Amino acid sequence: MGSKILIVGACGQIGTELTFALREKYGNDEVVASDIKEGNQELMESGPFEVVDATDYQQLERIIEQHQIGEVYLMAAMLSATAERFPMKGWDLNMNSLFHVLNLARDGKISKVFWPSSIAVFGPTSPKNNTPQVTVMEPSTVYGISKLAGERWCEYYFRKYNVDVRSVRYPGLISYKTLPGGGTTDYAVEIYHEALKSGAYTSFLQEGTTLPMMYMSDAIRGTIALMDAPAKNIQVRSSYNLAALSFAPEEIAAAITKYLPDFKINYEPDYRQEIADSWPASIDDRQAREDWGWEHQFDLDRMSKSMLENLREMLSLSR
After folding, report:
1. How many domains does the chain have?
2. Is residue 40 classed as helix, strand or coil in its secondary structure?
3. 118 FRET partner, CA 20 to 30 A, in 36, 90, 126, 171?
4. What is the pLDDT, as a whole number, of residue 245?
5. Cβ(98)–Cβ(78) under 8 Å?
6. Beta strands across the sheet bearing 49-51
7. Tens digit of each residue's pLDDT (9 = 90 or more) over 242-299
8. Is residue 108 domain-shared with residue 223, that is, in the same domain?
9. Contact call for residues 10 and 49 (beta carbons, < 8 A)
10. What is the extent of the structural domain holding 120?
11. Do 137 and 51 fall into the same domain?
């Protein structure tokens, strides 16, 4: 067993930024990125990359042995809105990839695993506001069902085989660096793009739909902080609640108009509204804050300012 890090699903929304952050922290050659297809030029040129199918155990095992991997961040997943269209594909990818990595850890091939869960594990019967760490969980989406099953398997492998697996329940994540990947909270990324490009946005969620959100840089910091924490501090081996912001479409629109006064928002809810309605409006993450010192840095205004400034620069470069 080696000491290097493997990121599976490195070309996705979280995986891309996690790859850069870990390479900055540990060195480019110490972090192997992988995905089912190649990523953008910046990612590909920043360090070692392997094409890997996360549902192929032999491929994963070969890459882990070849590169002397010690830790795996399993970021490959089919997200909520996409998985509703392809239920069995979503289940197969989300579950089989997790089993492969947990089994590799059980068999002593790797020493530590990060696997992301989601607020999608909660459902219509979960408390809507300040959703507790431990509560009723009856998810109503394929994605949520797969994440809840995954949480139970993570805890099982920790208790049964002492696998050092760590996880957080991500809220909606907002980033200027990568485009959304088929999630129900994607509107909160798209809205900034459209604000700059056209000055207007049509939201697929209706006014008043409050959801937990987080700026990507906070999510990446939190992920790495969890993996860096001493094992004795990690009291939750299913998945930690993680929170930062909660807002509805009209609130993010109001934050944008502080910088773009003529911006307008319209509403045309689609099938994603039903998914959003089954999720919490806010999350209680006290246990993560107490156990390993989690704290967020970005509020809605600071995030909006950063998103608009960075996107303006990126969009002008591409024109």
Report:
1. 2
2. coil
3. 36
4. 97
5. no
6. 49-51, 31-35, 4-8, 69-74, 112-114, 165-166
7. 999 999 999 999 999 999 999 999 999 999 999 999 999 999 999 999 999 999 999 9
8. yes
9. yes
10. 4-172+216-241
11. yes
